[in-house]
Records
---
Amino acid sequence: MVCTLFKGSARIGNGKSYVIQDLIIVVMVAVTVVIPHKEGDPLNLPVIGPEDELLVIEGLGAGEARIRGATDARNEWIITCDADGVYPNDYVEKAKEIIESGKYPYGFKALRLGGFAPSVGQEAGMVVPRELFLQRTRGFVPNGRWDVGHLLRDIPVEPSLTYYHDLTFGESTLTAIAVPAAVGVALVWFLGRRKGR
């Protein structure tokens, strides 16, 4: 949390004002944005405020990098992003407004557009309290799994917070296998029907 002092009057996110001898204390949420990144891959950085922190973690798998980022984070809330995701300019600010609303005390996920859209971000798009993230991922062993999203599947989706991500590695692999297989099955069926005429 960041406290800012103002002379005069001001409103806090919940609409309340607090006056202390002509000073207003405004409490703002500060977040840490965690992005795993591989050298040579694209790196799209979301816009953050001066009170926020951005951690780009190099040289680790996505799940391990997210855990390292959460461990190193200085803020109470973390936002997980993908290096190749595309985030609206107000993405972090909108996430902070949702945090401040108190609607999701245990975190929420953004809605991913693109790929097999819309879908819930498994690993990117999480906005969660740092301690909850570390508690849920404790004992995670990088064993070929790319993400830690499966450990946080019960976190609800906030559909007003969206980002764009093209096909993920898993979706690309599925498409590369499933589409040709479906075409092959359809072709065999079609040729079998024609032969039977």
---
Amino acid sequence: MVATRLDDALLAEYAERRFGYGSYDAPVWFVGMEEGGGGSLNEVRLRLETWAKLVSQPLDDLRDYHLALEFPKVICHFTEPISLQRTWAGLMRVLAGLRHETPTNGHLRQYQADQLGRHGAETCLLELLPLPSPGATVWHYDTWSGLPQLESRRAYEAYYAPRRVGALRQLIALHRPALVCFYGLTHATWWRQIAGVELREVALPPNKGGFVGQDGDIVYLLLQHPVAFGVTNSYFSSAGAHVSELVRQRIADDAGDEAHVAGAGPATDVATVQPWVVRQAAPSRGTARRAATDVARAGGRVATRVRAGVARLQKGIRMSLPMQGQHRPRPNEAGVGSQPDWHTFYSVAGDGMVDSFVARYPSLRPLLAHAPAAIDRYFGPHAGLRLEVFADPDAEGAEHLYLFVRTDAPFEEAYERQRRLDEEWWLDAMLEARGMMTVGIELA
């Protein structure tokens, strides 16, 4: 008998955990709206099953995952004769523009097959929405799944997009890539929420707009989608060159005097890195890793982390489905100088996992006791706070605590409140959390 539905448990896990391809430590991140494909039930089922076989990682290796799918239409992007994928080609031209270079199609094919979105390499390919889809006007998951958040495309976007905006913001804050490049101007509202900084318009040939912003050592770039009508190869290479000049100027302004005092030579520019390697001289993983490090340094980025143990965090941010049942009532705030029992503020999931986790990391107790008052300042009345511990299946013994703020505010308002919470309280409080806890929101 032919199955006509997807495994909802696997589908839900995939949608909650998977973000794309590459490595979070990569200096260059590309963020799109959603992955293509998903045109048939069997294709999506195979994608889910392949992901599960590859240890269900938040980030897959682009080449390894697609070769494991064994679809002729995707294998051709990684085996001879290599076919250029249009979206990836545009993104690779941004990388080429960082060096003020125009690669041949042969160079692009080489890079696509061997380096783009690989584990341990220099690029991370992420998606705002988790499920593959052939287009914004096509929706099959309502007939393939019984999950309520997939009953329509509108419900799907309303459920997952705000959650993943918050997750991407936290991932950027933790890993601080040198460049985050969003593509698809149609979705600029989401990209601006993720960036959290002003993105100003810049002119890129041929008369196509783009947007750029900076947050300390991170450059944000917002571009047309590579398959949008009228965009050319020069548009993407010009965008890369524009970022390179921004970085060059920042290094000149901020680091020149320091380099002279230290007796160092001139600062390295992003444009000095050569990513285009012919096939017969394909780099080893160590070479690719050094190239990634060079790009990060050339971007003028100082790799500051919340703490050395941040590497123990999960490789992805999990968004939990809303809890069933009632939340515990919250008592009045404790007086100044006191430390109330943190249990009274939260509903707790996981059969003692939270208590066990906090017992292992007792420094979290005062943070959990006083976090509700800080959250109240930004969210006002809300539907409760929830704690849950998630274990990383890719690293034995690695666990992470999540504090979810449940709110019935419209999602744009909710994420504006979260943005203010992050910027004015949480980014400092993370030091107290010592990399062991993340704050997110759930829409009621």
---
Amino acid sequence: MPVTRSPAPGKARKNIGLGKLLKGAHGAFNSALRVRLAAHDITFSQFQHLQNLWKEEGINQAELSRRIGITTASSTDVLDSLDRMGLIRRVRGKEDRRQLSVFLTPAGAALEEPLSAHAVDVNIMATKGLSETKIREMYQLLGHVIDNLRSTETAAAASRRSKSSGRPKPSRSSDQITR
């Protein structure tokens, strides 16, 4: 069985793709944060919802889901759990009863300081040993990577749209089988 070894500290990881390296960093970061959140009986998904509500409450469930980047159905389970815990309340719209706006309860608002402090602590832990200059440089480089990939993704989507809109539609006669 082959043995995989980590490169010596300070050595470049030439044999690992950037995506794989970022996935590893993301996993390690989230794992460290999840441990701290668990001390408050909060999951990472619950934290994401609360974090968005600390910025702006009273938004509807669909918008909250969009901001987090998950489906409304996935968000429903998380909001149900936060509701059972007494951290949020949902209010039906007066004009559209299907519309649910989400608000923090005092208990949900009170978690902002301790949970945000944990996120800050994990950021500090993750950048330990890096100078302020290196941290700024890392943010700039990662921002550049994100911009590159988003612009490539946007261009590819636009190209797919233009190709699909330019396709001739089959006529009924070509769809029919003649005997």
---
Amino acid sequence: MFGNSDESIDSLGRQSWFQNSSELFKSWMTSVSTVILDPFYTVIRVSISAVFIFIGARLLIASGWRSVTYSTILKILAIGLIPTLFVMVPYLGTLIASIWTLVLVVVGIEQVLGASRGVAIVVALFPKLLVFFLAAGALFLLLGGFLTLLFS
């Protein structure tokens, strides 16, 4: 009984109980930390998107460039994020929320900044278009460098 302490712990089942409770605690903390940190992540993501949409609006909206302010863009994005509540709907919730958010942001840019619908769509998609074109440019540079090394 006193010779091997591992056997006495195992015979009582305490070691497996501690391992199970440790795994449950880790999974619970992961879930709780996600819920606690998600609002901060959303604020940061929206703020960064607003910067790029602001740059796109200043570049593309010629008639009302004085009315284009960062706070105006941030307000449009904040109102546009209301449909993200539909993410809770299984299967189609994310698709519905994404489309409706895009529509609200486009309509907000049209109404508040006085842009045409086409310009408002490009301004609303400006961060995504910027990332796409930067990634495509980097891919072409890498491909060009690889082909140069291959055929030289």
